């Protein structure tokens, strides 16, 4: 599983590589499609349907959402209901706390997928 090394405003470093915002799906690290999110929703504070689909892939036990420095990422009821239906635990943290939480879950051997929002 990847290791989150550092977060700062607008940046996250995973396995030594710097990104703007990411999805971590199993061993894969994907840059979030910020332009697409802005075009469709006017913000990156929304989780796109294609991102939700990726977050559910690879059989996670936990989906961890780093909701930004102020927690502005919105998690809609449909997503929450699907998590319950699939018996996947949802954990949300403010972005500055994601390093410790994500790496701890991985160290415990949990199957965790994550979305890391690095602003707001």
What is the CATH superfamily? MTH938-like
CATH class: Alpha Beta
How many separate helices? 4
Main sheet attributes: strand count, strand direction, barrel closure: 5 strands, mixed
Distance between the termini: 27 Å
CATH architecture: 3-Layer(aba) Sandwich
Order of helices and strands: EEEEEHHEHEHE
Structural class based on helices, strands and sheet pairing = alpha/beta
- State the CATH topology: Hypothetical Protein Mth938, Chain: A
* Overall spatial form: globular
Strand content: 25-35%
Number of domains: 1
Which strand order does the major sheet show?
5-4-8-6-7
Question: Could you tell me the number of beta strands?
Answer: 8
Overall average pLDDT: 97
Helical percentage:
25-40%
Radius of gyration, Cα only, in angstroms?
Answer: 13 Å
Uncertain spans, ≥5 residues at pLDDT below 50?
A: none
Short synopsis of the structure:
The chain has 120 residues and is α/β, with parallel strands linked by helices. It is built from 4 helices and 8 strands, in the order E-E-E-E-E-H-H-E-H-E-H-E.
Description:
The chain has one domain (4-117): 3-Layer(aba) Sandwich (Hypothetical Protein Mth938, Chain: A). It has 4 helices and 8 strands, in the order E-E-E-E-E-H-H-E-H-E-H-E. 29% of the residues lie in helices and 31% in strands. The strands form 2 sheets. It has a 5-stranded mixed sheet, with helices on both faces. Strands 1-2-3 form a 3-stranded antiparallel sheet. The mean pLDDT is 97. It has helices at 34-41, 49-56, 77-85, 98-107, and strands at 4-8, 11-14, 17-19, 22-25, 28-31, 62-67, 89-93, 112-117. The longest helix is centred in the C-terminal third of the chain and has 10 residues, at 98-107. The chain is α/β, with parallel strands linked by helices and 120 residues long.
